[in-house]
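Morning F.,

Quick status update on the modeling queue. The single chain you submitted on Monday has been processed. Sequence for confirmation:
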Amino acid sequence: MTAETHSDRSERNAFGLDWLDVSLLGGGVLLLYYVVPLVSLFLSVPVGDVLSRMSDPTVVDSATTSLLSASVSTVLAALFGLPLAYWLARTDGPVAKVALAVAVLPLVLPPTVGGIVLLTVFGPGSPLGEVAAAAGLPLTRSLAGVVLAQTFVASPFVVVTAKAAFESVDRTLEHASRSLGKSRLTTARNVTLPLAGPGILAGVTLAFARAIGEFGATMMMAYYPRTMPVQIWVSFVELGLDNAYPVAILLVLIAATTLVCLNTVASNPWD
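Structure tokens below.
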């Protein structure tokens, strides 16, 4: 046990608390604000009622849609986000700064505004939307619309987190690989990606969690098929709060599982 220094003792107040203790007390209020509503949610409905509602076709369909669309969105975010993150991590200058700002912009846009932005490009009245609809592949009110909305709001997590992971890789290792005659692609595949892997996995995990919880942009792009957040809203508006509990609890459980994965198989970027 580390001995208490004179400085530590001098920082204690009349109640025998130091600044770290006070910080915990103050932060504990915020932690309770997070935990109490979650606990209250699980205590609001008997477990039997929740389990019985889980077999409801609307709940099953919304869960299936959310898991499928979030998985596809995450794959797309990783497929296009990782190359961008690598380029941002290895490039300096005003162009890179502008590109990073654009990549982060969906994180600060209100979700409904993000949905409106997407509708200007993929909506029924847009050239691209009309062409896709004529080809039998509508980009709104379809699974494609859900994926487009989720990818827009979730992919920045891959870019930002993977960029930080790439930047944490010791550049001397890459230089050593290049000095041995290896190409940039080979170096990235054999040196950079394995070392940045935990951080990349964290970004992918966060993107999946964000995608599966997306509501605003999805509502604008594709009210149908319904995802879990949309089904929660519909159940609440049409049938009352009690009917929204089962899907909400299921969504919380999925989010908690994602958090467990983030802290066990990935490198938590906020540790």
